[in-house]
Design goal:
By secondary structure, the chain is an alpha/beta fold. About 30% of the residues lie in helices and about 15% in strands. The chain has a domain of about 180 residues: Collagenase (Catalytic Domain), CATH 3.40.390.10. Helix 2 runs parallel beside helix 3. The structure holds zinc ion.
Amino acid sequence: MIPDFNKPLPSGYSNKGAGGRWTAGPAPQAQMSPSSGPEARVERLEKLAFGTVYPEHDVEARLDHLEKEIFGSTSQGSVEQRLSRLEQKLGGQGAFQSNAGKTDSIGSGAESASIVARIPYDRQAGDYFDKIKRFPGNTVARWTNFPVKVRIPEETPSQWKLSLNEAIENWSRYIPLTLAERAEAADVEVSWVNHLNPRLLGVTRLTAFNGNLKVRIYLLRPTYYVEQLSENALGGIFQHELGHGLGLFGHSDQNGDIMYLTELSAEGKVTSKNMKRPSERDLNTLRRVYETSPLPRGFSTIKPMEWS
Ligand SMILES: [Zn+2]
């Protein structure tokens, strides 16, 4: 099932573009940092679980963090035992595999199934899957290669970055996300803009080419409209837009869901300091999206589609 599971990723790997395939590159530092060591394994697990890494902490603390996230509590045991347990739990997902050898990874079953398994489904809560945009063949626009690469503009002030990162972390519990490196193509590209249509604070634009998605998220720069948009609201706005970008191309009709449209209306001023987590209904809907077939391979959008 998972032939590459115990093999390290090629140390010069990079993820190229919207199709998101891992390909081997030159490995100049191979001797310096053996990619099968505990640190590298923790790093891989962190990318998968959180979409980011925490190299400033020691391995044991990072294992505690991972175990709390994945199992709900920390465990005893050797570093090796703890790593193996986490890898078994998260195994078979994108970050552990090299996609380079795959002839066709679009919609390939194993990876999508393991994504679905990450997303809880609450039978009582219901969902708004009927509000999600459908494409030919009753498909949905969703990702098929993971982690999904997100790029935040380099010039983003550090305070804003913290808010955006929190939103990324919240979603990456369910859909593996990672920040794109400076030189590589991103799947989800974030930009700051000084103007959007009146009352909009963020816009997500979707294009598809031959079944591959490209998402751009435009966020209104907080300092421009000071009265309407407090910096504190940024994270919540981005979390909503990123929800679109990860496949929730539609809006909830219930307040309380982060994909509820009027949460973002500047009319009522966005002042909320606490970023809400995705609700059960948001997650139920996300899960149904990832249980649904992705865009047909030949499908391209005639013009970009937008959600705000
Ligand atoms: Zn929206």
